[in-house]
């Protein structure tokens, strides 16, 4: 039996079942839409729950506050960036470094406003152990 997954400090629980993972995705997507459309000042847990189509109690079952949602969004972006970099390295491109840089630039350009909002909270929280791992992975990929 696999050891239980460690709960990140910004989350109340790790979703294990498909429905719970979907709910987590609804929460993060709703928060991302609010940030893109209305900015960080408009982001509230009540609005996130409403846009995600869930009750506020359900949201609080996953996240204690809106900062925790932003940290989870940052983590998801970093994980997606890492996956994109891994995919870029797995190609037969003759210039992998150029492809890596292009991949990162495109990802940042395509959602720059959202990234600015999310990453400012991520950086403001400091790079704790759960945040340092993906950064180290990206660094290793680029080495």
Automatic annotation (TrEMBL):
Pfam name, any one: TetR_N
UniProt KW Mitochondrion keyword: no
Organism superkingdom: Bacteria
Annotated region of DNA binding: 44-63
PROSITE patterns attached to this UniProt entry: HTH_TETR_2 (PS50977)
UniProt cross-references to InterPro entries, sorted A to Z: Homeodomain-like_sf, HTH-type_TetR-like_transc_reg, HTH_TetR
Leader sequence residues: none
GO terms of molecular function: DNA-binding transcription factor activity; transcription cis-regulatory region binding
Gene3D superfamilies found in the cross-reference section: Tetracycline Repressor, domain 2
Start and end residues of each HTH tetR-type domain: 21-81
Alphabetic keyword roster: DNA-binding, Transcription, Transcription regulation
Protein's name according to its UniProt entry: TetR/AcrR family transcriptional regulator
Lineage: Bacteria, Pseudomonadati, Pseudomonadota, Alphaproteobacteria, Rhodobacterales
């Amino acid at each position: 039996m696999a050891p239980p997954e460690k709960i990140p400090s910004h989350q109340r629980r790790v979703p294990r079942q498909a429905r719970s993972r979907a709910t987590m995705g609804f929460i993060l997507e709703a928060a991302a839409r609010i940030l893109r459309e209305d900015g960080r000042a408009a982001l509230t847990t009540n609005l996130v729950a409403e846009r995600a189509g869930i009750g506020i109690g359900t949201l609080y079952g996953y996240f204690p506050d809106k900062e925790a949602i932003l940290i989870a969004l940052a983590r998801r972006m970093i994980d997606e960036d890492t996956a994109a970099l891994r995919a870029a390295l797995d190609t037969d491109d003759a210039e992998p470094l150029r492809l890596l840089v292009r991949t990162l630039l495109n990802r940042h350009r395509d959602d720059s406003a959202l990234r600015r909002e999310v990453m400012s909270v991520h950086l403001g929280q400091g790079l704790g152990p759960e945040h340092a791992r993906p950064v180290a992975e990206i660094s290793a990929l680029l080495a």
